[in-house]
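Tutorial, part two.
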Amino acid sequence: MNLYLGIDFGTTGARSTIIDSQGTIHCETEYTFADPQQTELPSVWQNALSAVIEQIPPTIRNQVRAIALDGTSSTVMLCDTDGIPVCEPILYNDARGAAVTETLRAIAPDNHTVLSATSSLAKLLWFCRGGAPVPAPSIVEGGHRGTAPTVFLHQADWLAFLLHGKLGISDYHNALKLGFDVDTLCYPNWLIQGIASAATPKLPQVVAPGTPVGEVRDEVRSRFGFPRDCTVCAGTTDSIAAFLASRVNSPGEAVTSLGSTLAVKLLSHTRVDDSRYGIYSHKLGDLWLVGGASNTGGAVLRNFFTDVELANYSTKINPEQESLLDYYPLLKNGDRFPINDPNLAPRLEPRPADSVEFLHGLLESIARIEARGYQLLQELGATPLTKVYTAGGGAKNAVWSAIRKRYLKVPVVTPVQTAAAYGTALLAMRSAMDLGLED
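Running the prediction step on this input gives:
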C-alpha cells in the first residue's frame, strides 16, 4: 500500500497524519512543545520533527511514498550555506518589522501584502539592518556557529530541508508575504532592486505547493525506514493546510481556523489584496484563497481559563443572548487583520466578577472580529460568503459556533477533517498522484 505523510507545525507543537490514496487515516501522532517560551528555537523544531516521525509504527513508515510539511506563515530564519541557523527565528506574530516601516514603504508598491510589520519581507529587512543577534553554538542539535547569514527561509522550508537536504526551496504560499508574485511566478523587480546588497541573504527558490523537491536523505531514510523512493514535496502554511483538510472547493465557502490565533480563508473567483486591513490572496489552482490572520483567538482565552473551565463555563452561556461587553482580545499590542496596526492595544476592560460573563464577552468579541473580517473581504470584491467551516480547537465549542453563526449569518459547520496535518498529507498524496505513484 502507498501511504502519504503530512506534518504540521503550529504554535504549540507538531502533529503528523498518514493517509492512503482514498484519504483514510492510518496513523496520527503528536508532539507538544515542553516549554512555550522556546517555540522559536530550531532545536525544538528539530526534536519535534523527529518525535512525530518516530511515533509512527515502522510498518507504516516503510510504506510512505511522499511527505509534505506546513509551518506557521511568516515564521522566518537565517541559515548559513550548510543549513545551520545563525540566529533565533522570528515568529509569525512578531512585529519588530515595524522598525523598518519607512524602508518597506520605499521599496514595495502601495497597498501591497508585504506592507505589514509581521510580513516575511519586513523581517528580512530587519535582519538586513543588522538586527540578527550573535547565535549560541548549540542553536541546533549538533550545530555549530554559523558563517555568514546567506540563506533566508521560512519554517516549513527549513524543516523540509532537514528531510530532503536541498537548501533554499520554498513554496509560493509561504513566499507570498516575502513579496513573491504569484501571477508571474517570480520575484518582482521592485523586490530584487530594493534589497540589493552584498549583505542581503539569498532568497529561496519558489515552487508550487506540492511540487516534488527530492527524495529523503540517506541518513533520514536509514534512521526512520522510509522507502528509497520516498519523496519530500514543497509545503504550505498551517492555515492553508487546515483549509485543504476541509476539502472545500466551492467559491463562497470559507474556513475559519480557531487555534491560538484566528485565520479566515474564503475561496473566491476574485483576488483581493489590501494591506490597510491585512488582507491577502493565495493562489489555489484557478481560484483565490482570500483572507487574513488576527492575533486574537484561543491563546487569549487560555490566558484566562483552563481547558476545563472553558468547557464548563461555555455550557452556562446562552449563545442567542448578545453580550454587552465590547472587547478586542489580544495578549499584547498589535494586530494584523481586520485591523492592521502593530500598535493596536488590547481591550479587555471592564472585567466582570462573573467568569461566565467574562468568557461570554471574549467569545462574542472574537466572533465580531471574525465577522468583520469576512465583511471586509466581500466589500473589497471577494465572492459572497455562503458557508463557513471551522478548524482548530475552537471548532469543538458548540456555544461559540452558535455565537459565530449569529454574527456570520451563514451556516457554520465542522468539516469531517480539520487537522492541518491531514491537509498536508492530502498535498503529498496529490503530488504523488500527479507523478503517477498512486496505487
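DSSP finds 13 helices and 17 strands in the chain. In part three we will examine how such features are distributed along the chain.
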